[in-house]
Amino acid sequence: MDSLHLGSYTFSSRLILGTGKFSSSSVMLEAVKASGSQLVTVALRRFNREQPEDDLFTPLSAIPGITLMPNTSGASTAAEAVRAARISRELSGSPFIKVEIHPNPQHLMPDSIETYEASKILAKEGFLVMPYIPADPVLAKRLEEAGCASVMPLGSAIGSGQGLATAEMLRIIIRESNIPVIVDAGLRSPSEAALAMEMGCGAVLVNSAVAVAGDPPAMAEAFAEAVAAGHKACRAGIMDKSGMAVATSPLTAFLGPAS
Amino acid sequence: MNTLLPEWLNPAADEARIREMLSPDSRWTLEHLAAQSRAITLRRFGRTMTLYAPLYLSNHCSSGCAYCGFASDRTTPRRRLEQEEIRKELAAMKRLGISDVLLLTGERTKAADFDYLRTSVATAAADMQRVTVEAFPMSVAEYRELAEAGCTGITIYQETYDRARYGELHRWGPKKEFLERLDTPSRALEGGIKTAGLGVLLGLADPQEDAIMLYRHLRHLGKTYWRAGLSVSFPRIRPQTGSYQPPFTVSDHLLARMIFAFRIALPDVELVLSTRESPAFRDGMAGLGITRMSIASRTTVGGYTDPESGDQGQFDIFDDRSVEAFCKALREKNIEPVFKNWAHAYNGPSSPETDERAPENVNTWN
Amino acid sequence: MHEMPQIITIQLNGEPFTLPRCSSVSDLLTRIASEEKTVATVINDQIVRPENRSAARLEEGDRVEILIFAGGG
């Protein structure tokens, strides 16, 4: 089975799970285990004496094969993201960093400029930079050039469940990219994850759709199956969706009969 | 020196479709391909045809290509245009309406070396809106100098991607170096040349295999030099008595299929057809996928000031219609001939952001 | 000559917090019952690594951040 390669890491699962918005840590941990996911995101937060169970480091690290990917959520500038990344690396020991900079708390759209600046710096410092970005093909190439390990264009706004609203842009990014393209944000159902993989994504990142499902561990499992199916189909070569359009008068008559 | 073929020449995941389109036995009929190619061309390029003309600066050559009229063992009289002659030729071309010129030389020789080429580019850039070059493989530094002199594009045909065949055909001289030639478009784009034109000389080897490898080359360049413009030409050897007989014949149907397949698989790449092809073929293909054509060509050295000269050209011209006649034919097909698709002000090197550029230097437009 | 105060006040995660003078970062972690291994400690924008925490003495007015990994997307 072919694996996802990021830096020197190899992952057999192409489903990356976010750990936010779950009703409890135990439900979240069940979901992670059920999904078979090997890369999960976490957020850097202030230690709160009243709520020591917020600390996910120990329970997540106990899951075999797990790698942590801290995100820089909370940062609204490149400088803040870089600072958060450096602190996160000290804590996690993992070189992965999801550069996530969304200054507007309503729509949570990523700031391309700050993300680019932070990513450039962090790539030079040896991080495996996974930038969360709008589905912008030029930005994706610039980030690739800057040394990012992948690009993570959004399918639609975080938590909006609008699916692959950016499908056309994603197709361009996937076609032109030399690094894995990981759709992140907006996926609502496993079929959308399958579609993203059929399009050629290297992986998908899902959080809300699993966390707010009726049965998160079961939903996590469903997503894992969909991601695997979509990827397999992509590798198997999906049939063309070609319409048999023929002009009213033949366009190739000038060529004469086939010799 | 690395003698291994680059990785990007290996079969790629995304080529199943173009391979199918290229095969005459596939479910893609020619008419179906034409319709799809036409639709994409219309969407992406509109109803236009960009026009240019070639100017052979010199027919000196150091290489021995089995198929070329200018190979160094042929008895063709050799000459090169001096700068004043170049200016006269350009003036004659401008009177025909041409403002986009392709300067050609043979492989590198002392008589027509890099300095000569660079000087000629500067001469042409002073008079023409756009100057491109089809000459010999150069270094990154040389391409940068060429770009600074006003060259915005280079064309270099690999001739064939079949390495064994390539070795048989390029018998002596610098053109023997297969890998160096393969790497040429990359060096040009590294050096700041804005567009690269690729192609194979159809007929030298299996045309379908050559087409697939050409596709892989274009995909590699498009993903690596993502700011660059790319174009593809489809020169086809015409078997002529007494001269080189190619082992493969490329029929009109196969050539058309190839052009349609490239348009569908690479919707943004410029597809070019020269006056090597017949008027009927050129007229037919206009609007179906080809977006750039040469006109009123001379393949002799110079030739625009003295069209009656008896000199032998590099290849025989098939479509020798005047500019007026050709433009009329295009207009009859509801296609607008475009002579100027570029502005002189953009004739400089491509300049992507580099790490060395300090963020303080943002006010350079003060 | 003034007596040095026996307690100092630092900013801990944005809130004032008092602790004995000469407390180390390790001492602070013990006081707030946090696990050494699962927190990052940042004093005045400088990361203090686990191996340096027992030697790192806190001073009056230090801005201390104790950070953990919590859930996030």
In short:
Chain A has nine helices and ten strands.
Give the tags.
heterotrimer; A: 259 residues; alpha/beta; TIM Barrel; five-stranded parallel β-sheet; three-stranded parallel β-sheet; 10 strands; 16% strand; globular; C: 73 residues; mainly beta; Ubiquitin-like (UB roll); five-stranded mixed β-sheet; 1 helix; 5 strands
Please give a structural write-up.
The complex is a heterotrimer of chains A (259), B (366) and C (73). With 259 residues, chain A is of the alpha/beta class. Chain A has helices at 25-35, 57-61, 78-92, 112-124, 137-145, 167-176, 190-199, 208-211, 216-236; strands at 4-6, 9-11, 15-18, 39-46, 67-71, 96-99, 128-133, 152-153, 182-184, 203-206. In chain A, the strands form 3 sheets. In chain A, strands 5-4-3-10-9 form a 5-stranded parallel beta sheet. In chain A, strands 6-7-8 form a 3-stranded parallel beta sheet. Chain B has one domain: TIM Barrel, CATH 3.20.20. Helix content of chain B is 35%, strand content 11%. Chain B contains 12 helices and 9 strands. Chain B has helices at 16-22, 30-45, 83-95, 114-127, 140-149, 163-169, 178-182, 184-190, 207-224, 252-265, 279-285, 323-332; strands at 48-56, 100-104, 130-134, 153-155, 195-199, 229-233, 270-273, 292-294, 336-338. In chain B, helix 4 (114-127) links the parallel strand 2 and strand 3 (130-134). Mean pLDDT of chain B is 88; it is low at 353-366. Chain C has a single domain (7-67), classed as Roll (Ubiquitin-like (UB roll)), CATH 3.10.20.30. Chain C is built from 1 helix and 5 strands, in the order ββαβββ. Chain C is globular and about 50 Å long. The chains are: A alpha/beta (259), B alpha/beta (366), C mainly beta (73). Strand 4 (39-46) of chain A pairs antiparallel with strand 5 (63-71) of chain C, so a sheet runs across the interface.
